[in-house]
Amino acid sequence: MKEKLRKEIKEKRRKHSKEDNRKKSKEIKERLFGLFEFKNAETLLFYISYDGEVFTHDMIKESFKEKRILVPTSNKKDFSLTISEIKSWDDLETGSYEILEPKKENIKPIDLEKVDLIIVPGVAFDTNGNRLGHGKGYYDRLLKNLNVIKIGLAFEFQIFEKIPVNKHDKAVDIIITEKRIIKCKKK
User: Fold this and answer.
1) Which residue, 38, 43, 140, 155, could crosslink 68 as a Cys pair with Cβ 3.0–4.6 Å?
2) Which of the residue ranges 18-32, 62-76, 99-113 would you say has the lowest mean pLDDT?
3) Domains along the chain?
4) Cα–Cα distance measured from residue 34 to residue 30, given in angstroms and rounded to the nearest whole number
5) CA angle, corner 168, sides to 45 and 73, nearest 5?
């Protein structure tokens, strides 16, 4: 069930035109930047978009002006993420899964207790904040013991009433689409 949904949404995302992606991503960025939780956060952990995801590159570049920006590096051996600070877009290079990551010399693990807000990727979300990731559990492991605001960014077609979840799946607190902000209900 999860794999079928993941495949369908990824395919839909890939067929989404680059122009439409950028237009909707800009609308999502405006909602995110206007959010009280975002405005008050000093240290942000952003995912770096790829493969038709909500485009975060402009969000990150604009956030350098006022925020401390952290981004992940993927470890394919144990499916973990190392979080490092970047000071500019030039601190990045193509890494695992063809996703931009900090250059090797910029990888310096950061204490996650210092993070105020995490911008989390997802293939699909439901209105309770449950997320369907890419299937390797990178973010579920990262979020496991973190008590921090988690925001999922998604296009409206990635939002469902209910998606299948397992006990290890970690939910987000807020989801932002090009049409709305969803404050997720906690069970």
Assistant:
1) 43
2) 99-113
3) 2-183 (3.40.50.10420)
4) 6
5) 30
